[in-house]
Automatic annotation (TrEMBL):
Belongs to the COMM domain-containing protein 6 family. It comes from Herpetotheres cachinnans (Laughing falcon). PROSITE patterns: COMM (PS51269). GO terms for molecular function: NF-kappaB binding. This is COMM domain-containing protein 6.
Length: 183
């Protein structure tokens, strides 16, 4: 069962590297999870997804910063203390074999996954009541971002913030503007 798990886990790590290289659109967590459960290992989709996210983040960070395998393993140990030894060995092996293949054209990669900012709108509202509280009357800010994804499709992403959150958000924008003026 252990060898079966290691094989499937290394498959997952390889898929993550392919994904970072834009060879595949994403990692099929559900399918891997089913196969791991079939092999007799107890793991749920949520945990596997969490591990996939951490490994993906580590691989892309390691590629960007040219980390050696040892540095990657140390960072991994700090990030996931409960990772079984055989899983660490798999990551070490996959990184040794394929880590160098991750292309580090950072701008291109970020643009293709994150999308492009088009516009921002915000409005002030007052919450009158909620399920948990009869009358709130607290002010909040709704922010709507227009984002164009790589295919050119424009989507709106909205979120609400309390006034202190919005002030903090706004302060960060001002800091960014101040930094940009020095460039």
């Amino acid at each position: 069962a252990l060898r079966m798990f290691s094989n499937l886990f290394s498959l997952q790590c390889e898929q993550i590297i392919q994904h970072l290289n834009h060879k595949i659109p994403g990692v099929n967590i559900a399918e891997l999870c089913q196969r791991i459960q079939t092999s007799g290992s107890e793991i749920n989709v949520g945990d596997l997804a969490k591990v996939a996210n951490i490994v993906s983040f580590l691989f892309s960070t390691a590629a960007r910063n040219n980390l050696s395998t040892e540095e990657l393993i140390t960072t991994l140990g700090n990030a996931v203390s409960a990772l079984p030894k055989h899983a660490v060995q798999v990551i070490r092996h996959v990184w040794n074999e394929q880590g160098k293949s991750i292309s580090v054209s950072e701008d291109a990669r970020n643009m293709s996954t994150v999308g492009q900012f088009v516009d921002i709108k915000w409005k002030l509202g007052v919450a009158m009541s909620s399920d948990t509280c009869r009358s709130l009357k607290y002010p909040y800010v709704t922010v709507t971002l227009k984002v164009a994804d790589p295919s050119g499709q424009i989507t709106d992403k909205s979120f609400e913030m309390t006034i202190p959150q919005f002030k903090n958000f706004f302060r960060q924008f001002k800091e960014m503007a101040a930094v940009l003026e020095t460039v």
